[in-house]
Specification:
By secondary structure, this protein is mainly alpha-helical. The chain has 3 helices and no strands. One of its GO terms (cellular component) is plasma membrane.
Length: 119
Amino acid sequence: MGTSQPNPPDRPDERFTLASERTFLAWMRTSLALMAGGIAMIHLVPEFSTSWVRLTLGTALMVLAVIAAVGGLTRWLQVQRALERGDPMPAAGHLWVIAVVTVVIVLVAAVAAVVSELS
């Protein structure tokens, strides 16, 4: 049976590196889902509210997709650097931006849906 040898001191544990890569790929999936939602909002639901509301919400979703993709890449690079150097994990400040923008988009969509139903 093979014995597991520890990594050299200058090399991060592969488990953490691979976990970081999986997290990065989750950010990319999130970005693609936001982009698809934005395109769908603009082109596939013409009965939802008015055209400017659909355009605004769809554009906001696509901008959020860009933020998620760039934020995911930046975070992955920061974590990889920290793993290689043995530094503490970096703060994830961009998560607040994504969470707040998502809440705003959902609230605007909810209000638009209610107003559309009532009129």
